[in-house]
Amino acid sequence: MSCDLAGIETPFPIGATLPSIYLDDDHAQGLCAVFDRMLVPVFVVLDSFPAHLDPATAPEDSLNWLAAWIGLVLDGHESPEKKRELIAAGADLLRWRGTVTGVHDAITAAFGVTPEITESGGVNVSSEPTGPPDAVADAGITVVLRVDDPDAIDLQRLDAVVTRVKPAHLPHRVDVVGR
């Protein structure tokens, strides 16, 4: 975290809290002044900590940290304003993580394009707790982006976004096609 601390004084100078015998001791007061300068960043951060937790007021270098706190993975293509928007909407986005709605919203937020998502709804089950599935269903999810210029969409980035927001056990396929 970076900030300019020039001219900021500690609200609680240590030298003033010393026993009276040290109040006139230049060496003790000088040592306390050094400690005060070292503690100014701590007081600044603690006093402004609520602002660091609010995506609207957090410093830009704190946005990735805030995103990690709520499990939101940013891929580095977002502007600071977009990061703030995604973090602010994070609670809503995370509620839908692992669902078709969550995949839809994540792709729309990342690419600005509404995807077509097909989910098979199939499941694999076993009558034995540790046995193989009795019948293998064709479970999976398919994501298709229809855009004017398919070359403008990074297919690896799309795949990475889908991988992060879909259920971990569900295979997926992504495709970008022209309109």
Automatic annotation (TrEMBL):
InterPro entries: Tail_protein_I, Unchr_phage_tail-like. This is Phage tail protein.
